[in-house]
Amino acid sequence: xxxxxxxxxxxxxxxxxxxxxxxxxxxxxxxxxxxxxxxxxxxxxxxxxxxxxxxxxxxxxxxxxxxxxxxxxxxxxxxxxxxxxxxxxxxxxxxxxxxxxxxxxxxxxxxxxxxxxxxxxxxxxxxxxxxxxxxxxxxxxxxxxxxxxxxxxxxxxxxxxx
Amino acid sequence: xxxxxxxxxxxxxxxxxxxxxxxxxxxxxxxxxxxxxxxxxxxxxxxxxxxxxxxxxxxxxxxxxxxxxxxxxxxxxxxxxxxxxxxxxxxxxxxxxxxxxxxxxxxxxxxxxxxxxxxxxxxxxxxxxxxxxxxxxxxxxxxxxxxxxxxxxxxxxxxxxxxx
Lengths: 162, 164
Description:
The structure holds 2 protein chains of 2 kinds. Chain A is built from 6 helices and no strands.
């Protein structure tokens, strides 16, 4: 009887539920099954109350910190690049200052004056040349026109325009 | 799968996953650690859980794979031997009359395949098809593991009872 029951228990298709429902007169097997069930209960009772998401939370926290660090790094790079760009632009602006309205007007007036004096002197030269032709002046006199000092009273002859 | 759905699934499966990990690793802290690691892996691959028909089996398979990785690493560092020595020392502390504790010790001494099969079939109440899917072995092989494991436990139990 005992062997039969034991065989039944260790049979491959045996289910624990079948055993609890069946009437078993074998005390050893009965006791074993009780211990077996108690073992299950004891293991269940020993399950600690732990947080299964602990590592997941840690991972998320790490990822958040990493992203934060990455953003800070990117922001600092952006800041440095912006500062360099602003610096370069500032230097370039200093080298090429824009002209004010007054400066432009002054420049225009000076140009006009220079052109007026230039045309006046050119007319004087041409008149001298015509006169020399008319009176058949010797060649040496005409050649002296080359060395004519045309500066006279030109007020902008020494003006330096940058 | 949304975060709340995932959390719900894990909270439902938490104890089963822990017990299964414990049946393989035989250490509470390591089992706890394994479950937390598996939860992290499952979250990273939650799309695969969506594709899987049976979430429970999928989670248990993930635990099994992770625990075997842990065992492999332990073996590599030769810590596994130390663990066994500790267990043997612990074993002598228990009173022979505490049959349940004795059974627990003996369950831990069973080969890992038998231990896993018994844990899933007898204690977690899965059917042979589900166990075979998780353990990636045929249902017949699982039947043999369960049967041999039970037989061994019963023989040891009988011996203990006779000694008393």
